Amino acid sequence: MFTGLITAMGEVTALTRKEKGARLFLRADAIAADAGLGDSISINGTCLTVVEIRGNLLAFDLSDETLTSTNLGLLKVRDRVNLESSLRLDSKLGGHFVTGHIDGVGRIRSRALSGDVYKFVIDTEERLADLLVEKGSVAVDGISLTVVEVLRNGFSIVIIPHTAKMTTIGYKDAGDSVNIEVDILGKYVSKFLNKGKDSRFMQTLREEGFV
Description:
single chain; alpha+beta; Elongation Factor Tu (Ef-tu), domain 3; six-stranded antiparallel β-barrel; 12 strands; 19% helix
């Protein structure tokens, strides 16, 4: 479990393909000293396990599923990635609950500067847009952000200068891909409503005019 508050950025040093999956090597100066084998770390919002430590270098194994369902398979040497260590019981919860399980890959439609903030419009699948609400939370490449507008096939966000400087979103532009994780509350509510749409409880809500 994570909060979406990025600890630091790391740098890709290698992405080695294997028969199945790949191994990702990162230079992670800010978190390597406290990392241990088996620790969970969010890489661009994807929960991965530390499998090797070489000084300030951390290695992670990527499954075929991870390569196809996230943007990690597109990484190149010297690319920056967002890093966040897993949430501890004594940690401050300043963002929102982020599981590290990516729901889909979005693509930046536009990036526009307005004053000192950037407005991004991100295209995504309609099924994900349906789970978003205005002023609700969404994780973009692991960054906890607030949804400004919900579109039919996407959404918009506003990035303040600090976030642009301290995370990879400041280096992204139109056409770039981003990992999307919608708020877990939205997923549970959606499943409950869809699975229980014919239940007596839902029938009562409809009779009373609530749905």
